[in-house]
Each structure stands twice: as structure tokens, then as C-alpha cells.
Amino acid sequence: MPAPEDLPLMSMNAVRAKDKAGWLDLFEPDALVEDPVGGHPYLDPTGLGQRGREAIGHFYDTFSATQKSMEYEVHHLVACANEAACDVTMRFTMTNGSVSETRMINIYKASPIGKIASLRSFWKQG
Question: How far is CA 90 from CA 15, 24, 70, 102, in A?
Fold first, then answer.
């Protein structure tokens, strides 16, 4: 069973590998993803996040549709109890060749069986 501090790297490695099934398997069936917290015009227009694997899978399809690749650099990772906070910079190469870099703080909450119960991502575009 993964420890909370393992979940950020497992999640980002699955996204980097374009392993949608592997990424979704990290989540509880009723997990909540807020990326970013508060919503985004394209990724989360309601601001309510995505609940459940089907909605999270649709979110994956939405963000990955315009991405050719993703790399990341972890600046700091700390776990307390059943949560882990990860300060990370993600670099996205888009299908049109442009590169986007975003620094964010991701908070992962682990369920009792080591799956992601929630993922809250704090970042601003621009």
C-alpha cells in the first residue's frame, strides 16, 4: 500500500507516461479532483471539481488533449498524517510546440487503503 508521500510522484509519473488507466487506478471510486481549486474556464468551469473516476477520466482527456508531453521538478514534498503537499513546477509541451511552465502546490489526501481520496491543486495561469 502506498504511503501518502508516494502518491504525488506516482500521480505525476503516470501523467508523464500518458498512462490514463494507471493514473485513474490511483484514485478512490468517489475521489475528488480540484485542479485548480476554485475552477478554471476550460478545465473546471463550475469550480466544483470532478468527483468520481468517470469525471476524473474526462478531466484527464481534457487536459491531455492539447499536451504532447509533461515534465516536472519537485521543489518540496512533505507528508503529515494521511496527506502530502507537493511544491512542484510542471512543464507542458503542447501539441502546437509551445511550452507552458506552471508552479503549483498539490495536496493529496490518501484513503485508508492508500488510494487518492482527493487532489487539490493550487495554481494560477499566466
Answer: 11, 19, 7, 5
Q: Is the pTM of this model over 0.90?
A: yes
Do 15 and 8 touch, CB atoms closer than 8 A? Answer: no
Question: Domain map of the chain by residue range?
Answer: 4-122
Gap between the Cα atoms of 64 and 67, Å rounded: 5
* CA–CA distance, 4 with 16 (Å, rounded to integer): 19
Q: How far apart are CA 123 and CA 35, in angstroms?
A: 8
Say how far residue 44 (Cα) sits from the centre of its chain.
Answer: 13
pLDDT, one tens digit per residue, over 59-104 is: 999 999 999 999 999 999 999 999 999 999 999 999 999 999 999 9
Q: Cell for 50? A: 470532478
Fold of 4-122: Nuclear Transport Factor 2; Chain: A, (3.10.450)
- DSSP structural state of residue 48: S
In tens, the pLDDT along 108-118 reads 999 999 999 99
